[in-house]
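fold-stage: in
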Amino acid sequence: MTVSVGIYLVDDRDMKINSMLNRARITQKHLKGQSSQSQYAIYSSKQRNDIMMQKTIENGFEDAIKNKEFKVYFQPKFNINANKFDGAEALVRWQKPNGTIISPGMFIPLFEKNRFIVKLDYYIMDQVCQKIKQWESYYPHLLISVNMSRAHLRDPQFVEKLNDICLSHGVSTSSIEIEITESAAYESLDVLT
């Protein structure tokens, strides 16, 4: 059993008890799932601002998917030995309608935690397949690397779902390279073997 304790140091004696408790709870929620050991944290306004930002990002996810605000960029891979363009890696950015770009460093860890990442990964895969189909007459043997979350490793239909996306666009699975981070792979060795 592990214990997470949120602490609020009272600096305003006129503050209502409920407000104090809410601040302690905010800090406690911020700790949950971060460690397998008991821990504590002291409330700070930065934590509150971070949680409010996370809530805003979470609340905007469904509309962002629907409105295609997640943009896939392609970082070229160049083979120096063969002196030729060899493929690309798909990278996602969240571009708001006002032009603001939200860094993946802000939304990917949050989406990993709340499992929105699964839906986002399939969205990205769909976008990548569309682009491969569009480029295939110019680059017939293009290999695109796509990062996928470790959350998929426990889904027995994962490969089938990826295959279905490729088939729906008439794209060969040999055009796609799936990348999973090393740490994620080590955490799921039982699934990979």
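fold-stage: in (second)
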Amino acid sequence: MLQRRWMKAVVAAVCVLLSPGAAHATQAVAVADPYVNSAHPSRNYGALSNLYVSIQGTALVRFDLSSLPSGTTASQIGKATLTLYVNRVNAFGAISVQPVLGAWMESSVTYATLPPLSSSIATFTPSTAEQFAALDITALVQSWVTTPAGN
């Protein structure tokens, strides 16, 4: 049986900046969100509105961090949360958040061209549909602020 969890492309990373005398939050929106499928290794799914995650499917997300104030440093990021909406659950299983270790383009990435993935930084197991999952990705966002090409 094919295991599949569908996540609506309502993906956002919220960063809380802490600086002397001021704290504020900003939202970094997803600017690219394709998924790739090992059963169809040469097919691109960049135009779909949902992120399909399963044993065969991997979703990729890139964020626009330009909403962070100019000059923001990693040490000023106090908290970053990735919020995903689980639209449907066809089979139970853990979903892992892993940084992508290479360049990719939404319109052309396929399973055959998928860059390597790093080790997991967060996991969650959706049990019911129509729920939000909030994951702490502070260290990852801090690394993106330090090295923007890593996003």
